[in-house]
Amino acid sequence: xxxxxxxxxxxxxxxxxxxxxxxxxxLLRVTDPAAARGWLAQAPVSSATTQQPPPATALQVAFxxxxxxxLGLRPDVVEFFSHEFIVGMASDASRARRLGDLGPNDPAAxxxxxxxxxxxxxxxxxxxxxxxxEDWQRxxxxxxxxxxxxxxxxxxxxMDGTExxxxxxxxxxxTVDWQRQRAVRDEERGDYSNVSCLGEYxxxxxxxxxxxxxRPLLDTDRDPGAVLPRAEDAPDKVDLGRxxxxxxxxxxxxxxxxxxxxxxxxxxxxxxLRKQLAETLVGRTMEGEALVGDTGERIPGEDxxxxxxxxxxxxxxxxxxxGAHIRRSNPRNADLPPGRPGLVxxxxxxxxxDAEALAVDKVSSTRFHRLLRxxxxxxxxxxxxxxxxxxPGGDATGLHFICLGxxxxxxxxxxxxxxxxxxxxxxxxxxxxxxxATHLPRDDGTPTDGFSIPLESGPDRRVCGLPQFVTVRGGAxxxxxxxxxxxxxxxVQP
Length: 494
Hints:
Strands 9, 10, 11, 12 and 15 form a five-stranded antiparallel sheet that branches. This protein has a four-stranded antiparallel sheet with strand order 2-3-1-4. Strands 5-6 form a two-stranded parallel ribbon. 44% of the residues are buried. A hairpin with a 7-residue loop joins β13 and β14. It has helices spanning 33-42, 65-71, 75-78, 83-87, 93-99, 133-144, 256-266, 271-282, 325-329, 343-351, 355-359, 384-388, 409-420, 483-489; strands at 22-30, 57-63, 122-128, 148-155, 175-176, 195-196, 217-219, 237-239, 245-254, 372-373, 376-378, 398-405, 451-453, 461-463, 470-480. It is built from 14 helices and 15 strands. α7 packs across α8. The chain is α+β, with helices and mostly antiparallel strands. Helix content is 22%, strand content 16%.
């Protein structure tokens, strides 16, 4: 088993660049392929190697499928990438329905990415220490102006570890097995672990199934300069995908004032109840503590006590409602519900003959759907008091949602469609994520704008009339290549 080639991986995958608190994302289209490839050949893209002292700036580069072709990569090579990446996020009505991109989220209304003409070819991600971004952005734009036109600049904000609604953010992330110590074989795992196979996030490595995700494997004559690495699982091929990842970018505008006004109205302006209800919808306290409390669990690969828990002790959602945002985002379950050891118990749980196990086995195993989140906030932050007195029509605020994964369909699209936008999560009926969903009625008029809060005795408490708090303003699927793949792309001939 080969060691991880940090010098061939873009640094965002490993570091996230939290120390570089200033950032902006440039959306470009190729205007001169030769000039674009010329810039790409010398672009100062940061790798995942550790540097001392840490760098003051970083540059990362990603491409849409149309961007790869605009550079000159042949269609018969592009077709080896995943179908989701090739057709794109806004490709058809069926995908829009699954992702919840309906009504105000319809791609036709997006500011970018919703149509082929609005789709960027290239994403440049610029990071810098405080005070360093303006000069860094000016330098990069001057270097690449001959080959590209700037479509948009997505600015970001530093909200000091919170997201725009005011909750601590960035707490729950998978621990990537960079040392490749996790056994990579297709076998059931009986406990939830935060450790995740490298191949879940980087192409060219085994994933949680013990398999290699499909990616462009080329005959050696397609790489006459011997730039690309050889494939681990096919040594006679060169691997264009190795050390690369798929990157999902969605611009999510958050109605912070609308969120807190709705919550405030539900509790008749009581500050303590207002905070409590908001935390119930999210599933964590505003400071980041889990509502399930200290369960005494020690999760492999998790050192943050705020994140070392599962929902095994709260099956009915009495402390953290089943439909709460963080519970939907990461259900923290294993491959099978718990049970007695032995073959008979395993068979009963696997085949559905154990009624108790079947009752808690309604959610797909979490480990196959984890995401590396690398998003940044944008717009002005505001306190609860400011939100409650905020004048309509002010500056937009929100999140540039960014996640990395090796399989768009199994990771981002599954989480978004089955867990967040889905109306049947964990056996629930006609409820979607309270924070991020549209809450539009079904085609037959059935409302989906409710949120259930289970009570120990009596029926659930129902919060009804949830408005839409988050609106999609743009989005696209990108490929974040390894550095050798970047050099290869700079040399391709049309």
